[in-house]
Fold each of these.
Amino acid sequence: MDTDAENFKTTFLPMGRLMYAEAIRILGDAREAEDAVQDVYARLWERRDGLAAIANIRAYVLAMTRNRCITLAGSPSRHFTDLTEADAGCAASISDEIEARDRMVKVMDIIDTLPDNQRLVITMHDIEGKSKEEIEHATDLSADNVRQLLSRARRFIRSCFNNQTT
């Protein structure tokens, strides 16, 4: 067996339940959660050569999973179960999905108002799932600058979101 495949299996496959739990928490749908986990596994496989440089693989994988689920939750092509087919328990789930989608739209609207450098860094990191190191190389920003821009963007988003919901 290929050494890359062996390393991948021993490192990432044990995280499957953790990834699935995170995906189901965000998406609320088992089939979509499974798809999200598979998408993350595919992206991890594509990036396998650069993953050795990641200090905290578990956090990195969970961030990728969250980002993929957020992307899926905000996708306009996302289909909800038809109410005529749903039982009473599913109706609450659909309501939760719609509420989560509305929250995501609000967050994306707030991101659009960020200064260019903050919007770029938060999009690359929290939406596209790029590591801070990848962002440094792509933008020629220092590690401290990337960290600071992420912190400021998140603080601004949190503040605006909390003001909108209260």
Amino acid sequence: MSTPNMWEIEDSFYAQGIGAICGVDEAGRGPLAGPVCAAAVMLPQHLEIPGLTDSKKLSDKKRRELFPLIQEQAIAFGIGFASEQEIDELNILQATFLAMKRALAQLGTLPELALIDGNRETDFGIPVRTVVKGDSLSANIAAASILAKVSRDDLMIQLAQKYPQYGFEVHKGYGTRAHYQALEAYGPSEVHRKTFLKSFYGKK
């Protein structure tokens, strides 16, 4: 069974006559390098995916087990990215919204309501509700958190092949001690976020 009450939020909207609901979440707002990723997922009502919860509470192995199950059983899903260049140009919040819009655009069938993890929203062209800690409370948001996390992790593993000196395959771009040591040794790469590393870029 999935975490208790993972459908409670959706049920409150189903009771109001809203049928098509999607969840939206992001991964990668905090790293020093790489894009931010967002996913949008529409699950069938009351679908039970064993172990479904916030991606941060799951092991990498479990996330990767759930990733194809969510894609196979979802009514629709979309995965969108905003690049490190877009993050630098727009700021991380607006770039996150851009990634979310790109994910929603891939759904094909527009939901009547989008549940967005967190407490910030923008005009997505459809009704939205923000849900603080939604990835632990909503089945649709939890599913989106897993798709976003695994998709971004995979992209960072690919970038590690091009930039092996930084260890992206280990820390996925986050500011670990080893990552900062690599930055001191090699300087920033093309995929580092300039606005997150002003002190390093100031040395150039």
